[in-house]
Amino acid sequence: MKKILQDLSFSELENLISAFGEKPFRAKQLYTGLMRGKKISQINVPAELRARLLEEYEDEPVKIIKTLTSADGTEKYLFALSDGNVIEGVLMKYKYGNTQCVSTQVGCRMGCKFCASTLGGLARNLSSGEILSQILVVNALHGGSLEKRSVTNAVLMGSGEPLDNYYNVISFLKNVSAPSGIGISARNISLSTCGIVPSIYALADEQIPVNLTISLHQTTDEGRARTMPIAKKYTIAEILKACEYYFDKTGRRYIFEYSLISGENCDGQHAEELIKLLKGKPCHVNLIRLNEVKERDLKTVTEKEAYRFLGLLEKGGLSATLRRQIGVDIGGACGQLRASYLNK
Ligand code: SAH
Predict the structure, then answer these.
(1) Which residue from 58, 174, 214, 238 puts its CA 20 to 30 A from 8's CA?
(2) Which residue is catalytic, options 22, 58, 88, 161?
(3) pLDDT grade, residue 324 (50/70/90)?
(4) Active-site residue identified among 108, 194, 266, 334
(5) Is the pTM of this model over 0.85?
(6) Cα distance between residue 129 and residue 141, in whole Å
(7) 196 lines ligand 1 (CB under 6 A)
(8) Minimal-distance CA residue to ligand 1 atom 15
């Protein structure tokens, strides 16, 4: 596999171009082209420079090979990487803008029982440029520019555990928010983690104002360990302490994802326990009805059951919402499209 030019920040690209003996304005031309989602071979720079770059760098590190469109407008993409691996992403359309869900790894090694992304384990980490390119190509697909973006928000909720690919994810967050590039501010990006505690502290110290989202899904360590192996390593109490540190450092409220699984985590007792854990904390709870994955035997709840659980949390004083389910008809949940592609 060749190197990935989109891994570089603007100043790193400037250094490369000057090491090539090229005029400095070529760096700006190249950078603008790349951030507009163009291939190296499509960017208007002298042919010799393009040829020299193409000897070392991938022309198109992330390529859309399939698009599925839901009746509700949600789009799901299958992307091919230069080494033949595939990853997936989703674009969700809201009134305030378009949120893209991006992958941070090929597969995942966290082993959560309800998730399709982890079925085949981890293949490899994505580089920062491969994470960024998912957004660049989708922005371009929808006619977005750097001045008027088609992708306005992002969530790191595709395949992979972002904090298991820490350095590349941090570098991605810096590059995606750079004002001279696509310029999606970290405030418009949510990073979701299953709860790798030391990396939550490290992230807080980076001073990147990304929205921190924790996949909680259970109210006790024992319950959590049944579906999320990471719970054997870090307790809920340790996660909550790390979240407090995150809030102290960044001033940003944190979010808990709670996927409702029938018979597992959503009766009255769970609501009480959740209220006890979270009441008074600067946080929000996002309830999601489990997206059933065919390889797994966990069952989702009815809409009525989900609203009942939401009501209990609200009555107990928590800030909570039930996520509207979108893109269900196109396999919207993590890893479903890639899994079905790999099965074929
Ligand atoms: N690894 C990260 C981010 C990827 S998953 C994390 O664990 O947070 C994004 C969210 O979707 C997580 O909250 C995850 O637990 C949840 N999720 C995964 N599979 C799901 C499914 N089948 N139904 C509902 N939520 C699911």
Answers:
(1) 214
(2) 88
(3) confident
(4) 334
(5) yes
(6) 18
(7) no
(8) 215
Residue whose CB lies within 8 A of the most ligand 1 atoms, among 114, 119, 189, for a mutation test:
114
pLDDT value of position 294: 83
Nearest CA to ligand 1 atom 24: 290
Residue 204 Cβ inside 6 Å of ligand 1? The answer reads: no
Please write the tens of the pLDDT for every residue from 121-147. 999 999 999 999 999 999 999 999 998
Cβ of 58 closer than 6 Å to ligand 1, yes or no, is no
Q: How many CB atoms lie within 10 A of CB 304?
A: 8
Concerning whether 60 is annotated as a catalytic residue, the answer is: no
Where residue 263 falls (left for φ over 0; alpha for ψ -120 to 50; beta otherwise) is left
Q: Is 190 a pocket residue for ligand 1 (Cβ < 6 Å)?
A: no
pLDDT score at 341: 66
| Residue 88 bears catalytic tag | yes
Residue 218, ligand 1, Cβ within 6 A = no
Q: Are 161 and 171 in contact (CB under 8 A)?
A: no
Query: What pLDDT digit, counting tens, does each position of 275-323 carry?
Result: 999 999 999 999 999 988 888 889 999 999 999 999 999 999 999 999 8
Distance 116 CA to ligand 1 centre (A): 9
